[in-house]
Amino acid sequence: MKPKGEFEVPTWNQIYTMLLNMAEKIRRDGFKPDVIVGVSRGGWPPARVLSDLLDNPNLANVRAEFYLGVAETKGEPTLTQPVSVNVKGKKVLVVDEVADTGKSLKLVKEHLTERGASEIKIATVYYKPWSIVKPDYYERETSLWIVFPWEVKETVKKIIKKCKEKEKSVEEETQKLIESGVPAKLVKRFTSEILEEENC
Fold it and tell me: Is residue 1 part of a domain?
């Protein structure tokens, strides 16, 4: 998985392989969570896969909102949905797709501590070197913008918005996505869909 350009574009299979490795690390570590908490929305797909790989059907949700656009963030994340189950006295594995600034993971950990979780460990597929939270488990470190397979349309939308704000060529910017490994067919489809919606 050699990134080209400014984006890193892992495939579903590459992510699944990374999660297999992560599940093995968690087992070797002897950590048996009572509940797996996926951070909405990006943490849902890896949390669901880890639930399967760790034979743990106890999945819960928490939502922290942070991102505005490609490489743009609000100053601070906001907890918009508290954890969906009682975690008092429980061991919790928090799962997200990436530890970027680490602020939302810090917020979620504080929230679970307040709710009485007995032990909290954090697992992310990716880790950015500047994150204020270093996950207990992660598979890859990168400084690039990661485009996950479950957020291609969302990324295209953010790029189009950024192009309009900065008066850049949509075609040139979306071409960078294609060069990084996002299927051209998808990029073209979503670009035309989004532009059509905006022109309605």
Answer: no
- Whole-angstrom Cα distance, residue 120 to residue 142? 24
* Structural domain of 160: 150-199
Against a cut of 0.85, is the pTM above it? yes
Indicate if 169 and 103 belong to the same structural domain: no
Q: How many domains does the chain have?
A: 2
Place of tokens 């035309």: 192
Placement of tokens 């819960």 in the chain: 60
Per residue in 128-174, pLDDT (tens digit) is 999 999 999 999 999 999 999 999 999 999 898 888 888 888 888 89
Q: What is the mean pLDDT of residues 194-200?
A: 81
Note every long-range contact of 52-60, with CB atoms under 8 Å and residues 24 or more positions apart, other chains counting: 53/19, 53/20, 53/23, 54/23, 54/26, 54/27, 54/93, 58/33, 58/34, 58/85, 59/35, 60/35, 60/36, 60/84, 60/85, 60/87
Q: Write the CATH number for 19.
A: 3.40.50.2020
Residue 36: which H helix or E strand, with range?
Answer: strand 35-40
> Can you give the pLDDT at residue 148?
95
